[in-house]
Structures are given as C-alpha cells and as structure tokens.
Amino acid sequence: MKGARVSAFVGIFKGLLLATVVTLVGMLLLAAAVVLLGMSDGVLSALNQVLKLASIVAGVRAAVGIGGSRGFATGAVVALLYMVIGYGLYCALGGMLFSWTAMLGEILLGAAAGAISGTIFVNLHPRGKKRFRAA
C-alpha cells in the first residue's frame, strides 16, 4: 500500500512539473506572438485558455500514463493543484483582485478537464501490449 501511495505522489509531481513547463514555454510563445503579430485581447484570452487545457492534458498524461490506473482521481488532482497554484500566482503577481467566483469557476473547469483526460488515458491501450485473439 505504501508503494502505491508513493507512486501516486510521484506521478502527480511529474504531472505538475510537466504542466508547468508546458505553460512556461507556451507563455513565451504567446508573448512572442503578441509582439510579432499584435493580437487582440480576445484572441490572447482564447489562446490562454487553450494553453491551460493543453498544459493540464500534458500533465495528466505524464501522471497517469497510457493504460495506467486511477486516471479520474489523479487527473482531477493534477489539474486542481495546477489551477490553484496558477491562480494563486496570478493574483500574487498583481494580475487581478481575488474573486471567489472566478477562482472557483477556473478550478472546477480545470479539475473537470483533468478528470476527463485522466479517464481517457487510463482507457487507452499501451502500444507495446498487443492483443491477440485466437481464431
């Protein structure tokens, strides 16, 4: 039982780490696109939401793996932690005033995306394991 918990915590940490890296790289690309292409605020806001979703999916993929276990719970936890940390940093860095409703909405949407993507990854079959049927 202890090994399973440690494995779950390591997976969650790996997922958070990858989600953070994807976010940072994506933010650099978005900043370059804003400078070079002069995007509007609406386009930038939409791309920011896509980047958050991509970061969550990448993090959940790293935490759960293809054909892993506990995808729903692990995906939800990775996304929940990612959103709470991100929202907290955004507010701490002066992004906006703290709003309970905005925070709750962001966190719930992120947790739902993480849980759904975790469920999908768990139900995929690893490529290395081929199923053979007797004819």
From TrEMBL:
One Pfam family matching this protein: DUF3792
Descriptive protein name: TIGR04086 family membrane protein
InterPro entries on file: DUF3792_TM
Membrane-spanning ranges: 12-37, 43-64, 76-101, 107-124
Top-level lineage group: Bacteria
Protein keywords: Membrane, Transmembrane, Transmembrane helix
